[in-house]
Amino acid sequence: MTVVPSGRSxxxxxxxxxxxxxxxxxxxxxxxxGSLMRAIRDIRPQDDxxxxxxxxxxxxxxxxxxxxxxxxxxxxxxxxxxxxxxxxFWERALNSRARxxxxxxxxxxxxxxxxxxxxx
Length: 120
What we know:
Layout: H1 10-21, E1 23-27, H2 30-40, E2 48-51, H3 66-77, H4 82-95, E3 99-102, H5 109-119
Parallel strand pairs: 1-2, 1-3
Helix pairs in contact: 3-4
């Protein structure tokens, strides 16, 4: 193992560099996520955007279960695979090795509900 002049191992430096080089941006919704993708694609092509697929400003939010949200959406919208979509989002967000950046606006009920419901 090579030791860099700072006294840290080269593998440690590579791990830190990878962490700061790759960012997973989490955007509250498909519209915000699409806009963010367009905004960063030229300046940070190594970054990725994960779009939160739910609007927490309506419906039940009394627990963190995807099945609760899915049951509510399926009752209102029809049978589509909401639970799998929500579980896929959390699987990707929680298992990412990249630096996470969450985007939200203070004046959007949907975005604030996302922030307070899952981030705080």
